[in-house]
Write a structure and sequence with these properties.
It is a single chain. The chain has 2 domains: 26-112 and 257-332, Periplasmic binding protein-like II (D-Maltodextrin-Binding Protein, domain 2); 114-240, Glycine betaine-binding periplasmic protein, domain 2 (D-Maltodextrin-Binding Protein, domain 2). The protein is an alpha+beta fold. The strands form 4 sheets. It has a 3-stranded antiparallel beta sheet, with helices on both faces. A 3-stranded antiparallel beta sheet has the order 9-5-10. The protein has a 3-stranded mixed beta sheet with strand order 6-7-8, with no helix packed on it. The protein has helices at 2-24, 37-54, 65-75, 90-98, 121-126, 133-137, 162-173, 189-202, 215-219, 233-240, 264-270, 272-279, 284-296, 301-311, 313-316, 322-332, and strands at 28-34, 57-63, 80-85, 102-106, 114-120, 144-145, 148-155, 181-184, 208-212, 222-224, 258-263. 50% of the residues lie in helices and 18% in strands. The chain has 16 helices and 11 strands. Residues 28-310 form the ABC-type glycine betaine transport system substrate-binding domain. Keywords: Signal. Residues 1-23 form the signal peptide. This is ABC transporter substrate-binding protein. One of its GO terms (cellular component) is ATP-binding cassette (ABC) transporter complex.
């Protein structure tokens, strides 16, 4: 009987230790909290799910694209970059993944970051023949310049942003002036956002540059127009992105690839926690709506993460195990 009791106690101890070890498998994980809204929300969602669902000791650390990814390659820290816009560093990152230093866990934005020229949905519904930028440029009378209604106006990207050079060169490439269009200078991000909000208030015409994911596109439904040309990377890099390009040719914005990047250390140590990051992916439409809620409520990234986890279990429970889902649901109530 004593031997049986001792065996039972020993077995229970081993099982208890195994359970504790399993809960601690994930260990410490550092998550880059990038300095824009969608990345901030995603970092906070990851922190909550990794802590509550998988027992990780998760910590958010300040980050930005180039410094964070460079640090991950050179120092192995932080462990996770939840929303890394990789196009600008793709060659370096591919080398690091080939060497096994880093790994692409998932495409965090399933449809990628989106840039281009847009019109309001009510304009697209009223004029279903306008599907491409050339269609819009053929009708300056439908998109009057705010300072001169005799010309069409295309709203430019804000001063100092890379997209301003791209838009200006693409405007030349598609012969905007020959179509009686002029660029509308918005001056700032607030000016650009304000122009769309004002157009929507009066159901007025609007045509110009914008991007996703953003709070504004979660609030105002816009339609991105197609570019009739295929993306030409060589011409894009050598001309469209250069302020002094003399002869830009028609091109198209490429999809901005947005990945969750992790260090090899975390891939090896994370276990089921790493598996979660390989499943976690969401579309721009979902992010836009969440960012709109965040802006309307002056919420922080943490606030928005809790709001999402409480209100969208149909989305995030597909990323996690049933056990982790139940733990997270209890924790965020």
């Amino acid at each position: 009987m004593k031997k049986l009791l001792a065996s039972t106690v020993l077995a229970a101890g081993i099982m208890g230790f195994a359970g504790a070890a399993s809960a601690e498998d994930c260990g410490r994980v550092t998550i880059a909290n990038m300095n824009w809204a969608s990345a901030e929300v995603l970092a906070n969602i990851d922190k909550i799910i990794l802590e509550e669902g998988y027992g990780c000791d998760a910590e958010l650390v300040a980050g930005d694209t180039n410094p964070t990814l460079t640090s991950m390659i050179e120092k192995g820290e932080p462990d996770v970059a939840p929303e890394a816009w990789v196009n600008a560093m793709r060659t370096v990152l591919d080398k690091a993944t080939d060497e096994g230093k880093l790994h692409y866990a998932s495409e965090s934005l399933s449809d990628g970051g989106v840039e281009g020229w847009w019109i309001p949905k009510y304009i697209a519904d009223e004029h279903p023949d306008i599907k491409t930028v050339e269609d819009a440029l053929a009708h300056p009378e439908l998109f009057p310049h705010p300072d001169d209604a005799s010309k069409g106006g295309l709203y430019n990207c804000p001063e100092g942003w890379g997209c301003r050079t791209n838009t200006t060169n693409m405007f030349k490439a598609y012969k905007g002036p020959d179509h009686n269009f002029e660029l509308v200078e918005t001056g700032s991000a607030a000016g650009l956002d304000g122009s769309i909000a004002k157009a929507y208030e009066g159901k007025d015409p609007w045509f110009g540059y914008y991007w996703a994911p953003t709070a504004l596109l979660g609030k105002y439904e816009m339609v991105k127009l197609d570019f009739p040309a295929e993306f030409n990377k060589e011409q894009w890099d050598s001309c469209i992105t250069k302020p002094d390009c003399a002869d830009p040719q028609p091109n198209a914005w490429t999809k901005s690839e947005v990945y969750t990047v992790v260090t090899d250390r975390f891939k090896q140590a994370g276990g089921p926690a790493y598996d979660y990051l390989t499943e976690r992916s969401w579309p721009n439409d979902t992010v836009n709506k969440l960012l709109a809620w965040m802006a309307d409520n002056q919420a922080t990234g943490e606030d928005a993460a809790y709001y999402f986890l409480n209100n969208s279990p149909d989305i995030w429970t597909k990323w996690v195990s049933e056990d982790a889902a139940e733990k997270v649901k209890k924790a965020v109530k």
